[in-house]
Write a structure and sequence with these properties.
Elements (H helix, E strand, L loop, with lengths): L8 E3 L5 E3 L2 E2 H8 L3 E5 H19 L3 E6 L6 H9 L3 E4 L2 H9 L7 E3 L6 H9 L4 E4 L2 H14 L3 E8 L21 E2 L4 H11 L3 E7 L10 H21 L5 E3 L17 H19 L5 E4 L3 H4 L3 E13 L3 E6 L8 H5 L5 E3 L9 E6 L8 E8 L7 E5 L20 E5 L2 E6 L4 H5 L4
Parallel strand pairs: 4-20, 5-6, 5-13, 6-7, 7-8, 8-9, 9-10, 9-11, 11-12, 12-13, 15-17
Antiparallel strand pairs: 1-2, 2-3, 4-14, 14-15, 14-19, 16-19, 17-18, 20-21
Helix pairs in contact: 2-9, 5-6, 8-9
This protein binds ligand LLP.
The site of ligand LLP has 17 residues, from α10.
C-alpha cells in the first residue's frame, strides 16, 4: 500500500517520489517545471470501475459520463472514448475538443446555465445525445432552433432537488438559491415539464440533478435519487407521461489529504440502484436509464504537479515562504477555495517532513499561495516540489495571469511518457494580440 494519498505514488531506491513507476525528479529534469503529470493507467482504471459498478448493480442500464470540466484535452476525450464511457461538456470549447477526436456524440450530455445560441446550434448540429436544459428561455430558444433545423432536440431538465450536499452534514433546504436549474419545491420543475411535453421540436427524455462536489457521504445521493423518483412518479400520475432517464450528476469525493475518507464507487452505485429499484417496484414505475457524471474522482488522484523551488524566505516568528515557479496560474484552488493538498519534496521523499511552511506561487498577488501550514521535508533552492492529487480542476482551471505560459501535461501509459498538451511558449502568449 502506498503511504501517499494516491496509490500510484511511491519512493524509489534513490529516495525520489515516483508516479506510475517513473522518477518524478527525472521527469522534471527532462520536461522542465512547472509540469503536470497524469497516470493514464489509473484514469482508465477509474473509468472501468464506474462502468463495472453500473453493470454489476444496475444491469448496465445506464451510462457513465465523465464530467470533462475536471480535465479536458484531446487525449482525455480519446481515453473516455476508448473506455466506452460518455462525457459531460459545458461549452463549445469542450464540445469542439471532443469532436476533434470523433467522440460518439450520442454519449454526450451538454450542460450549462446560460448556453449561447451559437452553442445550442452547435449541440444540435453535432446531434449530441442529451442537452440538459436549465431554464424556460433556453427551452424556447432550443425549440425554435431545432424547428429551423427540422429536428427534435433530445433534452433533460436540470432540477434543483432541494438536497444540498456541499457540507459534510447534508441539508434538505436552501437549494432554491442556486443559479442552476428548475426548483422542485415551488412546482417550477413540474410546470416546466408540462411545457416541454407540449413543444413540437423537443423530445423530453429525463431529469438531472447534481448535488455538489467532493462528497464523502452516500446518504445525500440516495436522498437525491429518492426525491427525483418522486418527481418521475408525479409526472406519470398527473400527466400520464413516463420519464425514461434519470441523471444523478457527479460529486464523488477523493483523497486530497490523510483526513479525507472517500466512499468506494461500487458502494454508491449499490445503494443508489437499490433505492431506485425499490421505488420503481413499490410505485409501479419502469426502471429509468441512469446516467452519472463523475469528474474529479476519475482524474484527480491520477495527477500531480511538479515545481522547482526558488527563493525561500524565513520571517522569524511568523512563517517561512517557499516560492515555486508556478502558482495560481496552474492551480487556483487554494486561492479560490483554500483547498488543501499533500506536498512532497520529490528528491527527498524518503526524508521526514520536519518543517512547516507556506508554499507561495510566482504571481504578483499576495493571495497566490498553494498552501499554508504545509508539512514538508527541509527544503532548499533547486528542490523539486510535488503537489499530489492535482489531476482535476487544475489544468482545466489554469490561466495566463501575469502572461505566464501554461505548463505541459504528460500522460504516462504502460511506463511510456506521452506529451498530451505541449508547454505554452511566449509566442503562444502573444498569438491573438493585434
Ligand atoms: N455534473 C455537473 C452538472 C457538474 O456541475 C459537475 C461539477 C460534475 C458533474 C462533476 O462533479 P465532480 O464529480 O467533479 O465533483 N472547480 C471546483 C469544482 C466545481 C465542480 C462543478 N461541477 C473545484 O475545483 O473543486
Amino acid at each position: 500500500m502506498s503511504e501517499f494519498v494516491s496509490k500510484n505514488l511511491a519512493i524509489n531506491e534513490k529516495g525520489h517520489l515516483t508516479i506510475a513507476g517513473l522518477d518524478t525528479v527525472e521527469l522534471a529534469k527532462e520536461y522542465g517545471t512547472p509540469l503536470y503529470v497524469m497516470d493514464e493507467d489509473l484514469i482508465r482504471e477509474h473509468c472501468r470501475s464506474f462502468r463495472q459498478s453500473m453493470e454489476q448493480y444496475y444491469d448496465g442500464a445506464g451510462l457513465v459520463c465523465y464530467a470533462s470540466k475536471a480535465f479536458s484535452c484531446k487525449a482525455m476525450y480519446r481515453i473516455a472514448k476508448e473506455e466506452g464511457i460518455g462525457i459531460d461538456v459545458v461549452s463549445a470549447g469542450e464540445l469542439y475538443t471532443a469532436a476533434c477526436v470523433d467522440f460518439p456524440m450520442d454519449k454526450v450530455c451538454y450542460h450549462g446555465n446560460n448556453k449561447t445560441e451559437f452553442e445550442l446550434r452547435m449541440a444540435i448540429e453535432h446531434k449530441v445525445g442529451r442537452i440538459i436544459v436549465d431554464n424556460i428561455y433556453e427551452l424556447e430558444l432550443l425549440n425554435k432552433l431545432a424547428a429551423e433545423e427540422g429536428v427534435k432536440a433530445r433534452i433533460m431538465y436540470r432540477i434543483k432537488p432541494g438536497v444540498d450536499a456541499h457540507t459534510h452534514d447534508f441539508v434538505k433546504t436552501g437549494q432554491i438559491d442556486s443559479k442552476f436549474g428548475f426548483a422542485l419545491e415551488t412546482g417550477e420543475a413540474f410546470e416546466a415539464i408540462k411545457k416541454a411535453l407540449s413543444l413540437e421540436n423537443i423530445e423530453f427524455v429525463g431529469v438531472h440533478c447534481h448535488i455538489g462536489s467532493q462528497i464523502f457521504d452516500i446518504a445525500p445521493f440516495v436522498e437525491a435519487a429518492n426525491v427525483m423518483m418522486g418527481l418521475i412518479e408525479q409526472v406519470k400520475v398527473e400527466l400520464g407521461h413516463e420519464i425514461t432517464e434519470l441523471n444523478l450528476g457527479g460529486g464523488f469525493g477523493i483523497k486530497y489529504t490523510e483526513s479525507d475518507t472517500p466512499v468506494p464507487y461500487a458502494d454508491y452505485m449499490d445503494k443508489v440502484s437499490e433505492t431506485v429499484k425499490a421505488l420503481c417496484k413499490e410505485r409501479g414505475l419502469k426502471l429509468p436509464f441512469i446516467l452519472i457524471e463523475p469528474g474529479r474522482s476519475i482524474v484527480a488522484p491520477a495527477g500531480i504537479t511538479l515545481y522547482t523551488v526558488g527563493g525561500i524566505k524565513e520571517i522569524p516568528n511568523i512563517r517561512t515562504y517557499v516560492s515555486v515557479d508556478g502558482g495560481l496560474g496552474d492551480n487556483p484552488r487554494y486561492a479560490l477555495y483554500k483547498s488543501e493538498y499533500d506536498f512532497v519534496v520529490a528528491n527527498k521523499a524518503d526524508k521526514a517532513k520536519d518543517s512547516v511552511v507556506t508554499v507561495a506561487g510566482r504571481c504578483c498577488e499576495s493571495g497566490d499561495l498553494l498552501g499554508e501550514g504545509v508539512k514538508l521535508q527541509t527544503t532548499e533552492v533547486g528542490d523539486t516540489l510535488a503537489v499530489l492529487a492535482t489531476g482535476a480542476y487544475n489544468y482545466s482551471m489554469s490561466s495566463n495571469y501575469n502572461r505566464v505560459p501554461k505548463p505541459p501535461v504528460l500522460m504516462i501509459c504502460n511506463g511510456e511518457v506521452k506529451v498530451a498538451v505541449k508547454r505554452e511558449t511566449l509566442e503562444d502568449i502573444v498569438r491573438n494580440d493585434m
